[in-house]
Amino acid sequence: MKNFFSNLFNRKNDPKSIISFDVIDPIYSYLYNQQGSLEFKVKGIQDHVWVNLFYFPGSFDHDEAKQEIKKAGFSNSYEVLNELYKKANIATLTPELIAEGLEYDYIHIQFYSEPTKEAKQYFKRTMNNFVILFCCSNSLEINDFKILYSSAHFTDYTKGILDTELLDFNNPKNETQEIAVKDFKIVLQGICQYLNIEIPETVELPSSENLVQIEEVTKETFKELITLISRGNIEEDKLKEQSENLFQNFLKPDEDYYEVIEAHYEFFELIDAWNSDWKFDPEDAEYFISNLIGADWSFDYPEETYSHDLFPYIQTALQDLNLELMSYDTKGDNYLFFLAHKKDVGRILELSELTKIEVQKM
Predict the structure, then answer these.
(1) 359-361 and 323-328 as β-strands: parallel, antiparallel, unpaired?
(2) pLDDT tens digits, one per residue of 245-268
(3) Contact present, 225 and 345 (Cβ < 8 Å)
(4) Are 233 and 45 in contact (CB under 8 A)?
(5) Residues 189, 96 share a domain
């Protein structure tokens, strides 16, 4: 049985916005009636999107959650739920209602976004947690929702959900939330397309694409990626050879991980790339980027600026050439830099996800 309580505000359901009850309610219905957990890819979103229907008290009825609840200073999961309701301005459960032992559902959507410019020097991506609570507004029927948000990783789930805050998605309070809301709209469209849920015609879609169209990985996929990463500066026979080699390594089982990584390094050694220690000087950047573009190149930067702190200044200077600095994720303390045409960066990141050749924006 699902139960929701009235909040203090009028219903908000912008017919033009994809963040609306008319879009979220059918997603909830699917999760409730057919499959309560989803994991899939959405174009333009890093890694996977995770969608889960949880409920109080059942989802917290296990030893780990009980320990987390006790550690947080509460005696049961209903008390945790009441804390969330307080954040969202939803009427809390009375002791009498708690005694009835009813279930209260919520949706938890997780995905990664690009970090803010400020956070980029510390993190490669930002986790987004959207916790959707349902409620009623001027009605006895469920017709509204509130969203709690956090950009933290939920290593302690109870603490994580308690640390969320009410999100005003029409007026994000900072750049992290702005990026998250923009991507959340894409994710909602992707969920609807993945589940074949019809989106109302009045809604202004964030994308005109099929965001979950499954793209088969073939030798041509690797050929396209190599061409974009090398900016077309690769001989045809080498292009064919590397496409075949990387595709065959892609097909290998997970236990051959190191052979696959070795193949990736072999590819980057073949194209114009800059293998750098994590600590480098501005002069290093100017020297190697000059080599990558085949012309003298320099950039402006504040004194005593080094390594990753140089990235914003490098990228600004490269804009004049319509280029962007990117790197293969070596999983170590070094960088494998390359230059890409700015117009190709989005597609490179898509192909990176498909081919598991992990490259990233700097």
Answers:
(1) antiparallel
(2) 889 888 887 667 777 788 888 888
(3) no
(4) no
(5) yes
Same domain, yes or no: 50 and 183: yes
Residues of the domain holding 357: 219-361
Amino acid, res. 237: D
CA angle 319, 288, 120 (to 5 degrees): 55
Number of domains in the chain: 2
Residue spans of alpha helices (H) in 110-174: 157-162
Residue 201 in domain: no
- Domain-ending residue, one of 194, 227, 257: 194
Phi, psi for residue 324 in degrees, rounded to 5: -140, 140
Are both 174 and 254 inside the same structural domain?
Answer: no
d(CA 161, CA 154): 8
Alpha helix ranges (H) inside the chain: 21-33, 63-71, 77-87, 95-99, 157-162, 175-194, 219-229, 236-250, 257-270, 282-293, 311-318, 345-355
Residue 278 pLDDT grade (very low, low, confident, very high; cuts 50, 70, 90): confident
Distances (CA, A) of 164 to 103, 148, 157, 179, 252: 21, 6, 11, 17, 41
Nearest to 250 by CA among 221, 275, 273, 213: 221
Instruction: Please tell me the distance from the alpha carbon of residue 149 to that of residue 66, in angstroms, as a whole number.
Output: 23
| Cα-trace Rg, the chain | 24
Distances (CA, A) of 102 to 85, 116, 229, 230, 325: 16, 41, 55, 59, 54
Same domain, 242 and 287: yes
Residue 308 CB partners (closer than 8 Å, separation 6+) = 121, 278, 362
The pTM score is: 0.67
Please check whether residues 240 and 346 belong to one and the same domain: yes
3-state helix, strand, coil in the chain (%, to 5): 45, 20, 40
